[in-house]
Amino acid sequence: MGSAVDTLESLIAAGRCKPMILVMPDCNKWPFEERPVDHGNLWKCVFHYGRLSHEHEIEYAISDLMNSIDSLYHPSYCAIAGLSDGARMAANVANVRQQTVQAVGLFSPVLHKDQLPENPMQCYSVYVGKQDFFYTNGARFHKRMEHAGYPHQFIVWEGGHNWHMWRRCLADFLEQL
């Protein structure tokens, strides 16, 4: 639903971003049977074959996937992004992989009230919509980042907690990389 692959491919084709592998946990809480499944749905494999049900297991699976990408492709730059609850997971994975993840995109993030990056050198971009019911979470995270003196971007757009908003966030984040 987020059209991440289409967004990435069109930006690369237009010369607006470099070719890359982007790990982007979405972690929708829909029952598996209701998920729109296509050839690019990694979560079908993760949930069906891995039988993962706990958040920390999902985060370990993401980190393991990134280890595989590192060993196969040896990327010189690594970014992770997530939307909603996936943004919290992306932030957690970025904390675990401080030496390899340089950029973190958080779209309409659901974050714990005291969550803060452990590495102030990572480049965080936090996107929220004015009508998003998680606007307060994003704004609170921004204030904690400011208070800690961590460089970051806090981007507020018109929009809510929906795919239309997240597609715009992803495109902007990818172009900045």
Strand order of the largest sheet: 1-2-3-4
Q: What Rg is obtained from the alpha carbons, in whole angstroms?
A: 15 Å
How large is the count of helical segments?
6
Strand content: 5-15%
CATH classification, class level: Alpha Beta
Identify the CATH homologous superfamily.
Alpha/Beta hydrolase fold, catalytic domain
The class by helix and strand makeup works out as alpha/beta
What is the molecular shape?
A: globular
Outline the biggest β-sheet.
4 strands, parallel
Q: Span from first to last CA?
A: 23 Å
Mean pLDDT: 79
Order of helices and strands: HHHEHEEHEH
> What is the CATH architecture annotation?
3-Layer(aba) Sandwich
Number of domains: 1
Helix proportion: 40-55%
Question: What is the CATH topology descriptor?
Answer: Rossmann fold
* DSSP E strands, number: 4
Low-confidence stretches are 27-53
What is this structure's SSE topology?
Elements: H1 4-13, H2 42-50, H3 55-73, E1 79-83, H4 85-96, E2 103-107, E3 123-129, H5 135-148, E4 152-157, H6 163-176
Parallel strand pairs: 1-2, 2-3, 3-4
Helix pairs in contact: 1-6, 3-4
What does this structure look like?
- With 177 residues, the chain is of the alpha/beta class.
- The protein has six helices and four strands.
- Strands 1-2-3-4 form a four-stranded parallel beta sheet, with helices on both faces.
- The two termini are 23 Å apart.
- About 15% of the residues have low confidence.
